[in-house]
Amino acid sequence: MNILFVGTDNNAKKRKLEEICSKNLDPATRELNLNLFYGDTDSTASILTNLNTPPFSSSKRITYLKNIQSLPKKEKETLLNNLKKISKHSIFIIDLEHYQAKDSFIKSVSSCCHVTHFDPPKTLPAVKNWIIKYLSKENREISKDAISYLIKIIQMRDISNLSSELDKICLYIDDKKRIDVTDVASVVCGISEADIFEITNAIKAKDRKKAMFVLSVLLNNKAKPYEILGFLGWHFRKAYAGLKTSDITGREDLSEKIRFLLELDYKLKTSRAKPSILLEASIVKLCG
């Protein structure tokens, strides 16, 4: 069996490889039957020898090849000519980051393989659906607010690390089945709900010194301004939803704060000013 992994989401590739290994290899002899090769350092002859070597105390042997494009031209031809002739006991996995349709060699290789794509989602709806689907495999759920917050963060980061971040969140929440904003903030951003409560309570008490102290601690701990802003926005929206309809003053006050944070969000994305300075100035204004 020949399998072609295509894409840049390396964490997803590792999970798929682990899935294939768990189905086909005995843990006791796994290291003897899982072999990694590199096209820029290993010869086609050694790869083919491994592919046709009977597995050790196992029904399958897995050969994993990276950097296939780096093989010399003649060795590429040799590998291609043998792709359909490898042992029935072998599972040959070829790891390719970028598929180039104009590359005749890669095109020929893909025609001999079962192709699995590992490209990270590129649009917000696709990201949202991908998150839900990914977590469902782990029997986890995630709140709408947590998805929105996570998407807001990964928009400004390397999305290829998304699966890794989700894995860390799942480990963090242990047996808990539903992920909320506080879980995302704690794991991905290093911000605790207690930190945000301290800032919001200081804002409510108009205690600028306390609010700025907590903010400086978060920034010094490498929390990003847009991460802090997102968590603050979630907190105020949650507080607004918990108010009674009759509490007109409270609702108006929180509505004003939420609008203010939305304006700040726009400034962070469009202004040339340093984000941390914009956030600090805004916290001062919120304190009154």
Give a verbal description of the structure.
Strand 2 (34-38), helix 3 and strand 3 form a beta-alpha-beta unit. The strands form 2 sheets. The protein has a 5-stranded parallel sheet with strand order 2-3-4-1-5, with helices on both faces. The chain folds into 3 domains: 2-117, P-loop containing nucleotide triphosphate hydrolases (Rossmann fold); 124-189, Helicase, Ruva Protein, domain 3; 193-287, Zinc Finger, Delta Prime, domain 3. It is elongated and about 75 Å long. It contains 14 helices and 7 strands. Helix content is 59%, strand content 11%. Helix 7 (144-154) runs antiparallel to helix 12 (225-242) and helix 8 (162-173) packs across helix 9 (181-189).
Itemize the secondary structure elements and their pairings.
Layout: E1 2-6, H1 10-24, H2 30-33, E2 34-38, H3 44-51, E3 61-66, H4 73-82, E4 90-96, H5 104-111, E5 114-117, H6 124-136, E6 141-142, H7 144-154, H8 162-173, E7 178-179, H9 181-189, H10 193-204, H11 208-220, H12 225-242, H13 248-270, H14 275-287
Parallel strand pairs: 1-4, 1-5, 2-3, 3-4, 6-7
Helix pairs in contact: 7-9, 7-12, 8-9, 9-12, 10-11, 10-12, 11-14, 12-13, 13-14
